[in-house]
Amino acid sequence: MTASISNGIGGTTILSYSSHFPDSTPVAVSSGMGAAGIVGSFLYASLTEPHLANLSPKTAILLMLVFPFTLATFYWLVLDHPSNLMKKCLKGPTEDCQEYTARQAIKSTSLIEKIGAIKPSLRFLLPMIVVYMAEYTTNQGFIQFIVFDCANGFGLAKISQYRWFQFIYRVGTFVTKTSLLFIDFSTNWLYLFPLLQLSNGVLFYFEALFAFLPHISLPFLMVFISGLVGGACLSKTYNHIHKTTPADFKPFLLGVASTSDTFGIFLAAFLSIWVWC
Hints:
Elements: H1 2-17, H2 25-48, H3 57-63, H4 66-78, H5 95-102, H6 111-118, H7 122-142, H8 158-179, H9 193-210, H10 217-244, H11 250-276
Helix pairs in contact: 1-11, 2-8, 2-10, 7-9, 7-10, 7-11, 8-10, 9-10, 10-11
Keywords: Lysosome, Membrane, Transmembrane, Transmembrane helix
Main location: membrane
Organism: Mesorhabditis belari
């Protein structure tokens, strides 16, 4: 629970904070999120894989606790913070604080103004909600019921297959989250992504029910495609909002965008319970 709360607060905050940096920053942030997913899922799968480190899940998690401390170190000691941030003058109107306030490029906006600014972005946020609802219903609801024997599962133990599904999914998200740094595409694709993700989810649903696929390589490919779609939708939405939103509303709308995929994941949790009950 605390990890989920920390992830939610941290993800929203860091994305809003990225609005104070150059236009490529949201894509770089989403790429970093994708890389973190790859590293985390690969390390956990490798550390717990019987053919590799063969550690217990508890030991693997404890070893990976080094990453939160690394993140804090980079944020507080390495990151070069911009000078146009809004801050409170806690010690009164000192000369330094007044000079700092004079340099602020973003003016304060009311809550009503911020809520009104959400409406134009809904056409990009709603597709992302659907994409992540379908994506996490598949990942957390269907894939756990898909297992293959050793002959058709690359020799992986049944308990290990789910972990490698997650790693391959993370590879897919990283590829598209990073590719936007080099190759851009039209926002019209955002309306196609929900259809692709829902179709993929339907295939996984029937595979979980009837186990008709002959080899694990096929669902591996399907979950990789799921990662590609989710990563592309996320990074393109963040990038578009960052480039087209006025500076006054940019931190707020990027924060709202970061909660859109979370809301889709929230819906996926309830949908998964309903599907299998």
